[in-house]
Amino acid sequence: MTFTNAPVTRLLVLGLVSVSIGASMLDVKHYFYISIDTHLWKYRQLWRLFTYQLCYTNSTEVLFAAMSLYNLRVVERMWGSKKYASFLVVSSLFTAVIPPIIMVVLRPISAGLFNYMPAGPTPIVFAILAQYYIMVPHVYKYRVATSQSAQANDSSSITLSDKSYLYAIAIHLSLLQWPGSVLGAFVGWAVGNVWRGGLIPASLVSWRLPGWMVGLSSHRRSAEFEGLRRRLEGENSPATGVSSGVQSEGQQAERRRTMGQQIMDQFREAL
Description:
Layout: H1 7-25, E1 34-35, H2 36-42, H3 59-71, H4 73-79, H5 81-106, E2 116-117, H6 122-135, E3 141-145, E4 157-161, H7 164-175, H8 180-197, H9 202-206, H10 218-236, H11 249-270
Helix pairs in contact: 1-3, 3-7, 4-5, 5-6, 5-8, 6-7, 6-8, 7-8, 10-11
């Protein structure tokens, strides 16, 4: 499997890995996390709210986040790159501000436990994961026995699905720098569900990035719409004037031309 029809996911994964490596090589990782008492209260470095999701500060988090984003590329394929990129922008604005604000509230009553917001787009990963959980059905389920008994009943086994491994990777990512990473994951999951439930203002839900920002030119969109129009006309054209259920040679040629156009459209989309 590749990043075919998922250019935003490809850019997201490559950008995350590149910025994380660059921050490590240039020794600037200390700019990408938030210490509530020092960075926000003492020095008022509010710009950190919009930079802490740009990269991770250790290789383990980079690996698990890249694996999660790669497996979640199916959401982009189902939505389209334009809607997917717009969702990422809106979600990142909410997840940039809400987790640190919650930490500001919890820090005094938690004896300083909620004082460190780790770097990385873990909240965004969980916002996408919320869409994946709702949109993508499981293909199969399997049962894992928790006892050595050969005839294990339902109470001594765990039922999993083909999607469980992705959830396991994401949960492991959220636990690497708890409690901050857990809080970010919870907020991201909540933002994803709120966005899908229509609780976010409709203007933000319906807002879209310009097509050129996600690599969609006007010529390509016109070709896609024209191909769709031809396919719809071919499917809805009435079969009148045909005796004994046999199509005329002109109709057969038109159907062959339409199928050929469909194949060419698919090749263009893949390229």
